[in-house]
């Protein structure tokens, strides 16, 4: 039996229809795959609206001279356009402290990459840092916009002073349109909806039956992945679900302990009040559920 046959036998009956694009592995498996270059192009055309992107080339961040520090970066896709623009794309579960500063730091690797390759006088081609965040970004708390674009403007915010550094942040938790609320004319909404909900769908939503969405959903089918990739994906998602379940269990335990402590504190408060009224220890124990020994301790304290 080959390893491929073995892995195919390991696949369960509950395997998903579509890959979870909000997971790091799923996002990179689809949008970072050379075979799905057209799918990534469709996504970029919806987000990078100030450029006309016609072609892209994937860049391996570990082998393009970005330096030792860059190898520890967690961005998922690094590519450049036909006219030299660099685009970094990442999928994050949660925001974190100094998230915006972190994304600016990541964007500098795309600048350094160009300077190392002979760009002179710091006239580097535009860099786009695109961050998808599942649970929101602390710095944008209070805003209802699910897409936030950040650029360098002069004081007052009326004059753009640098066109070569561009940041696009997509907060998936703020996108709350239902399938019925989607518009056939708004491809960005359709793309964000698909990324957020695809893993829970069994088919393409009716309003998204355009060629670009058909291609996205076909590329994201779990069955379209190779057996090894399927195994890695299932193992990773199972591990994440297990970790989440453990966290939820610990949270529930903590809540239960907190409730138990609250109830105990309440009983002790009632017992102390009864003691102040001179009630008998055995009566207090019977009414509060505390032991007589505990009542005696309260009297001594």
In short:
The protein has 301 residues and is an alpha/beta fold.
Total number of distinct structural domains: 2
Describe the global form. elongated
Please mark out the parts with pLDDT under 50 across 5 or more consecutive residues, or reply none. 1-13, 67-72
Lateral strand order in the biggest sheet? 1-2-3-4-6-5
**Helix-residue proportion:** 40-55%
Q: In sequence order, what are the helices and strands, one letter per element?
A: HHHEEEHEEEHHHHH
Radius of gyration over all CA atoms, rounded: 28 Å
**Mean of residue pLDDT?**
81
Task: Summarize the structure in words.
The chain is of the alpha/beta class and 301 residues long. The chain has nine helices and six strands. The chain has helices spanning 3-10, 24-31, 37-47, 99-116, 187-197, 211-219, 227-276, 281-288, 292-300, and strands spanning 56-58, 77-81, 86-92, 127-133, 147-153, 160-171. Strands 1-2-3-4-6-5 form a six-stranded mixed beta sheet, with helices on both faces. The longest helix has 50 residues, at 227-276. The chain is elongated, with a radius of gyration of 28 Å. The N and C termini lie far apart (73 Å). Mean pLDDT is 81; it is low at 1-13 and 67-72.
